[in-house]
Amino acid sequence: MKRKVYSRILVLALGLSLACTGCGDKSAEEVTDYGAPKTTAGSAEQSSESGTGSQGSSEGGSETGSSEAKPTGRKMGELPAVQNGGTPLWQGSFNAQNVPVEVSITKLYRDVDTLHSYRMKDLSEDQVREAETVKAILGDTAKEVRRDISLKDGDAQYIIGVCQTCRLSFMNEQLSEYGEGPVAAWVDDENYFYHTYEGTYMDVPYQMVIAYHRQGGEKSVSFYPKNPGDLVDSPKCNYIEPLENHFESINTDIWSGTNVWEAMSDRPNRTQSGEDTLISTAKTFSEEKLMSPMSTDDMKITIGKESGDPYKKELLFYSDDAVKSGTMEGAVLDGYEVQYNMCHAVTGEEDYSWMIGNSGFLWVTDKGVIGGSVNINYEVVEKLADQVQVLKFENLMECFEEVVKTDFDVSKVNGQKLTFSSATLMYYPVWSEEDAHEFTLVPCWCFEGYSNGRVATVLINAVDGSKIVILYTN
Description:
Elements: H1 2-14, E1 76-77, E2 83-84, E3 90-96, E4 99-110, E5 117-122, H2 130-138, E6 143-145, E7 148-149, H3 157-171, E8 183-184, E9 186-188, E10 192-201, E11 204-213, E12 218-225, E13 239-244, H4 260-264, H5 275-289, E14 313-318, H6 320-325, E15 332-347, E16 353-365, E17 368-376, E18 378-385, E19 390-391, H7 393-407, E20 418-431, E21 438-450, E22 454-461, E23 467-472
Parallel strand pairs: 4-20
Antiparallel strand pairs: 1-19, 2-4, 3-4, 5-18, 5-21, 6-10, 7-8, 9-10, 10-11, 11-12, 12-17, 13-14, 14-15, 15-16, 16-17, 20-21, 21-22, 22-23
Helix pairs in contact: 1-3
């Protein structure tokens, strides 16, 4: 049961151990105008002689594929609908040098709801503003916690989990009795630190952790009540668990067969504020309490719209006794999880990717923000555009084909067939040639290539069709 609860914290904190390195064929100076496609005289008359995509030849061609790609004359379009299987959105076959390539895009996802354009830079240590962040949340009640913390000493189990995860990601220390401790609450090192505080927030005892990884340039803030039940006037409720309310099988295995959905079906969520109000509360908290220049444009409650059926995560307060009873006696639904995601992928070993960037979640009720964990990797310097225009998908796929033909390292597949079946819309950082710490966050399409397992990720600029980078798994 606890493993499920803390896995969310683990995913967030693992990002702290990763230094973000950008590589790509375009500098930030070249991709700052996302309001309209780039055009050149006569480009509309260009045509693609080699395109074989079934939907890709009717809109006019362009020079595409490498960093010199100029998909001028292309049409901009709306984002295609999320799809998981069914009729291919685009399909074609061609050769990349001597390697046969099959493309049948039957799965399309979106990691973001909206497409903005940002100029950003790495979060420097002077932007961590630790003391100000602590004071903003815990006020004058804040005290440093330099002792070992553990569940038996009444410390917040979620904060214990954060400290243990920091030790795992920073020091590669194996976890033991996860979420129970004991674990050191205050660590300083040349390359990182994590510091634990306690005090009063919303008139109940809270603990919080601020961590910073100097190599990765990432700040993490986590804060939770020592006893969650204090927030809902039910002291026995020692757990908070986000309940995904449209997927009835997701949580039942955690509760040893207890049918939580049936048990909670007659208990409405106590939080009555609308979705817009709760998101606004989360944004205000982020801007005023987290003390870092982060964009809050993409905060949302209803998730899954980009990758499947939409759903919300309700906050369930419950106890061990409630689970054992099988009736969830005393359990309470109060609040929702607001998620924040401005990430990009770094491909690692086969079939494994790291997500790095500004991300996290805040738990919000009618009372306000009651807890959460947020990673801040990037400082927003400037928003360049509110709504970025993207290429029509069939035009984008012509560009993708040329990139694979021109730039793919076919030695990675040993002459075997290369296949692509999915595309994901996401952000990717393109670093400035003038400043190694500054970049443009570029909306792009991510294509996973397979040949006896995943061999590469091809990232294509969603605005102009140019290649950003090809990341190989080995």
